[in-house]
UniProtKB/TrEMBL annotation:
Keyword field: Acyltransferase, Cytoplasm, Iron, Metal-binding, Transferase, tRNA processing
Lineage start: Bacteria, Pseudomonadati, Pseudomonadota, Gammaproteobacteria, Cardiobacteriales
Residues that, per the record, bind substrate: 134-138, 167, 180, 270
Protein name: tRNA N6-adenosine threonylcarbamoyltransferase
Family the UniProt entry places it in: Belongs to the KAE1 / TsaD family.
Organism: Wohlfahrtiimonas larvae
EC number: 2.3.1.234
Reaction equation(s) it catalyzes: L-threonylcarbamoyladenylate + adenosine(37) in tRNA = N(6)-L-threonylcarbamoyladenosine(37) in tRNA + AMP + H(+)
Gene expressing this chain: tsaD
Free-text cofactor note: Binds 1 Fe(2+) ion per subunit.
Tree of life domain: Bacteria
Main location: cytoplasm
Sequence intervals crossing the membrane: none
């Protein structure tokens, strides 16, 4: 079965083709980052318009890359939420049109499930059950993955997501949007012990996160500093965030006795986070898995993969009653059917 995956929930247009035997056969991505950087954040209306411009071209390019024709496509998967409604609409309408023209089943995929399952695009994959630390621009969650489609959210953020805290802090230091990766790069030049920033909620005994207090503390420090101090601030901030993530993840792994941990979402591209989790988990006999950096941030391959798994389970349809979702909690999914509309 050859599945076309389409991602358009935010500022990346992603398209990929996933085949039952050959696995990932094409992967095309166009990032709108430069477009939005001018405004210091994603402008939803501009995002939608740019998805319209790029999506058909990327599908053509993906088919050419794989040496396939439109008629070879057996099913179409698109991101149905969570995300920006206007941006999601572009992918959904394109997918509906193609499904109708080809008479091939259509399926809406949950963007967070796609991030969480992206690790299956790699050669080495964890066995179920596993723990996932899902950290992106919009989410910071610890999720127990019991089986494909069976997700239990154990802890969430009370305020800012990790990626959001990285981006906002980076912005205060004058780094262009989205500053997360650039802040991480700057941190390599700094001393992570220069500032003693708080490790939020590490003694709370639960699996919840909160980053707004830390962000405020760092913002005050930046205000009283000069540019020469920025690398040290970046390094100390990054260390505080990662220490917190590691403490909570260790607690989750211990409480739920899992043998594998997956890091997923855009912040999973962070090198220090990967290193530190591996260092702490190894002595516990727990293996750490993560997608290659390209598949940590938004992409079509993760959508094609989840689409393939679900379309193989006959969950696609030719009824075009798509209801896009700005919010769509993972806990409402199941391995058998798509979640009820919210
Ligand atoms: O998953 P993603 O592409 O989009 C969402 O679904 O939110 O994640 C993007 C987030 C941004 O906040 C970005 O700054 C952050 O991931 N990010 C990083 C790194 N690379 C991307 N944060 C810290 N360190 C990185 N190396
Ligand atoms: Zn994402």
């Amino acid at each position: 079965m050859l599945v076309l995956g389409i991602e358009s929930s935010c500022d990346e247009t992603g398209v990929a083709l996933y085949d039952s035997e050959q696995k990932l056969v094409a992967h095309q991505i166009y990032s709108q980052i430069e477009l939005h950087a001018l405004y210091g954040g994603v402008v939803p209306e501009l995002a939608s318009r740019d998805h319209i411009r790029k999506l058909p071209l990327l599908v053509d390019a993906a088919l050419e890359e794989a040496g396939k024709e439109y008629s070879d496509i057996d099913g179409i998967a698109f991101t149905e939420g969570p995300g920006l409604i206007g941006a999601l609409m572009v992918g959904a309408l394109y997918a509906e049109g193609l499904s109708y023209a080809l008479k091939k089943p259509l399926l809406g995929v949950n963007h967070m499930e796609a991030h969480l399952q992206a690790v299956h695009l790699e050669d080495e994959v964890p066995e179920y059950p596993f723990m996932t630390l899902l950290v992106s621009g919009g989410h910071s969650q610890l999720v127990l993955v019991k089986a494909f489609g069976e997700y239990e959210i154990l802890g969430d953020t009370l305020d800012d997501a990790v990626g959001e805290a990285f981006d906002k802090t980076a912005k205060l230091m004058g780094l262009p949007y989205p500053g997360g990766a650039k802040l991480a790069k700057m941190a390599e030049e700094g001393d992570d012990k220069a500032y003693d920033f708080p490790r939020p909620m590490i003694h709370s005994g639960d699996l919840k996160f909160s980053f707004s207090g830390l962000k405020t503390k760092v913002a005050m420090t930046i205000k009283d500093s000069t540019e020469a101090d920025y690398p040290n601030i970046a390094a100390s901030f990054q260390r505080a965030v990662i220490d917190t993530l590691v403490v909570k993840t260790k607690r989750a792994v211990t409480e739920y006795h899992v043998k594998s941990i997956v890091i997923a979402g855009g912040v999973a591209a962070n090198k220090l986070l990967r290193q530190e989790l591996a260092r702490v988990m190894e002595p516990m006999g727990v293996r750490v898995f993560y997608p290659r950096p390209l598949f940590c941030t938004d992409n079509g391959a993760m959508v094609a993969y989840v689409g393939h798994e679900r379309l193989m389970r006959n969950q696609g349809s030719l009824n075009y009653d798509v209801k896009l979702k700005a919010r769509w909690p993972l806990s409402t999914l199941s391995s058998k059917q798509e979640s009820e509309q919210e």
